[in-house]
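Exam prep: given the inputs below (a chain plus heme C), describe the expected output before reading on.
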Amino acid sequence: MKFKRVAVLLLFITGVSLSTDRIVLKKPPRSLDRYYPPVSKKFEFLSNMHTMSTAFTGIRLNVNDGNWEKALFWAKELKKTYLKTSRMVPEWKDYFKPSLAENLVKAVGSRNVDRVIDATKKLGKTCAKCHQDNQMAVKLLYHFPSFEKVSIEDPVEFMELKTGDYMKKLADSLKALKVYLIQGESEKAQESGLNFVERARQLRSMCSKCHTNKLSEEVIVGKDFEKSLSRMEELLSAGKPKKDEVFKLLNSVGMSCAKCHNVHLVPAVVREAFGK
Ligand code: HEC
Ligand code: HEC
Ligand code: HEC
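Solution:
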């Protein structure tokens, strides 16, 4: 019986997230800015989340060990941080139920496992509710710098363009290359193809605006990417490019586009949508 209760306690404490059939992205309140770069590098809000989560684990481990004194210590830590956090973002005040944190401290103080389970579940629900509404948007918005502010010089038209506009030009020359290759218009394919190669090469210049580690660049726009582009340049410059071979190279170049999009596109698009 004791074993079963402990198992239930484990379940409630670890399984605080609720499953859902849709994810809504609400724009987080501006007051959250204070706890994230560039305003603060300390991530105070996130740091409290880790403290509370660790405290939950502290309660669980110690209740399981029968060490009620230490469990009480963690319950008090949890309450303290919960109250502190509830004052950090005024717009989110109503997500917090301070009485439920107090309730958990009392339950642990009573050394009654059933009460602890009940109190944990109730408090955990307030965490889960806010997470469901806000966690994803905060992750996407506050953990990535803005691509909006990054500009790239277009090597074809010699203009500074914002990332999104640059991508459009890059993709346009890529699609023009495909169209003319399929139509068998070699000269036009050559022109748009060489524009594409130049623009694709230039992509690398943007990475260092955020990354200081060359490794991040290398895995996506490194030697293999450059090799495919150079080979494409050769084929296109030679006139009458071999269609199949160019398409094969485009596939490998496209892998780099896709990889970078997998990492960077979703946060960039969300930030843009929120005008952040
Ligand atoms: C930094 C890594 C990165 C690389 C490499 C990259 N992209 Fe992008 N791409 C982005 C980001 C970020 C956006 C979203 C920009 C925005 O909307 O602000 C984007 C958006 C796009 C868009 C949508 C543009 C729009 O706003 O409608 C297209 C099309 C595109 N990229 C094509 C490509 C192609 C083709 C390649 C490869 C030759 C490529 N990208 C390589 C990061 C990258
Ligand atoms: C008012 C809203 C709100 C409440 C209440 C809340 N959280 Fe969070 N929590 C967030 C947001 C927003 C994030 C995402 C923060 C980020 O990624 O920077 C988060 C993230 C987390 C994370 C993940 C941290 C990571 O590194 O990704 C944990 C764990 C967590 N919260 C625990 C808790 C616990 C435990 C409680 C309740 C005792 C709680 N939270 C209550 C808003 C809330
Ligand atoms: C606007 C800023 C910005 C730009 C521009 C940018 N990145 Fe990133 N990139 C990030 C952030 C933020 C992360 C998440 C990891 C982190 O927090 O350090 C990341 C993660 C990555 C990762 C996975 C983790 C790592 O650090 O290796 C790769 C790979 C990567 N970027 C490649 C690129 C490439 C290639 C380019 C240029 C074509 C590029 N990035 C341009 C900000 C940027």
